[in-house]
Amino acid sequence: MDKLECLFCQKSFPLDIFFPFCPLCQEPLLCPDPLSNKPGIPKAFPTIKNWYSWLPLSTYNPYLSLGEGRSPLIRCGNLLPSNELPPVFFKNESFNPTASFKDRGTALAIQKAVSLGINKIGTVSTGNMAASTAAYGAKARITTYLLLKEDTSDQKARTPAVFGPKIFKVKADYGKLFTESYSLGKKHGIYFMNSVDPFRIEGYKITGFEIFRQLNNKAPDFIFVPLSSGGHLIGLIRAFQNLGHSGTLRKFPVFVGVQAEGCAPLVRAFERSESRFRRIPEGKTVAHSISNPDPPGGNIVLKLIQKNKGVLVSVSDEEILEAQKILAVKEGINCLPASAASLAGFFKLKTSGRIKKNHISVLIITGSGLKKLTPTDTSSDPCLSISLRKLDTVFSNERKIY
Ligand SMILES: Cc1ncc(COP(=O)(O)O)c(C=O)c1O
Ligand SMILES: [Zn+2]
Description:
Blueprint: E1 3-5, E2 12-14, E3 73-75, E4 88-92, H1 102-115, E5 120-124, H2 128-140, E6 143-149, H3 154-161, E7 166-170, H4 174-188, E8 191-192, H5 198-214, E9 222-226, H6 231-245, E10 254-260, H7 265-271, H8 298-307, E11 311-315, H9 317-331, H10 337-351, E12 361-365, H11 388-401
Parallel strand pairs: 4-12, 5-6, 5-8, 6-7, 9-10, 9-12, 10-11
Antiparallel strand pairs: 1-2, 3-4
């Protein structure tokens, strides 16, 4: 029988897919480390199926996949003058089927759902997780319920709506909605694969395995991850823990979780060396996808970061928007403001002198800027209106410059 474990009281519990929380500590439960037999890592650049022995799956149904994962690791060249630039890579998760890292988690959770004979899934989200869950629900021919906050704009609800889920805008505090979704799910047989779902988190491990493979079986020195509920960062850290337990890893990377200053409850606790965070009344940042004032995986993040000598930093909205612009203009990467927090965090550590010339950094680009229908910068019209005749004159003048 499947078991889940609590990192706090170290006890294990039989899997209750509808309520994966420790009854004693109220913290999210995690899957046990599957690597008792220490398998070798796959040679090629594999799909979920090839990482099978590293994942908590007893069956794999290829029909449920939307081709997630295997995102590129792109070497950056233009961020800083070349004499100041250590090796920096972008792991671009925009390449996933619904253009964010969430697909990796949903892909694994949907395998679990179908193997357990579940035919209703759901999630509490306003953005990327909603679209991802609805897409995989459609592929699996499962009814999908999305619970959104009452004030979610119609525009934001439209992206997941294309996949045909049942969408509800609920009059309730977001934290309460998250907790209540589990009671409702249990009562009505709906598997709420929310942000810290144990199987979703296992799906995020594959990003870590891929980075290791793409760097020729080596861990980078630093991995920068935008941080909100904590599910993504927990999954990435667990990937390297698994690699460590298998005897394949020489050095554990320094994980850097990056929050926005306007919503940084975990950074606040980290800076005070506290083992538990305190929720804040409300998140205020342009990086909406990382604006969770009461992150459900927060205490696990603190525990893992403290144990593995990681770092949590916060960055201002100005730094996030500047990083977003630099990524687009200098590196050709269009990402969400939340994703640009990785680069803003990198600049912060670089300025502090923590990153040396020979340190390899991987920055996770969590989601595509194409998802945001309204551009962040609306200050001016980016086009110049011009007659055809004048265009010829402009081009001729430009030629003289070169
Ligand atoms: C684009 C993007 N980046 C980062 C995050 C943060 O991930 P997590 O909530 O797992 O910490 C999210 C979460 O929704 C997201 O949508
Ligand atoms: Zn516990």
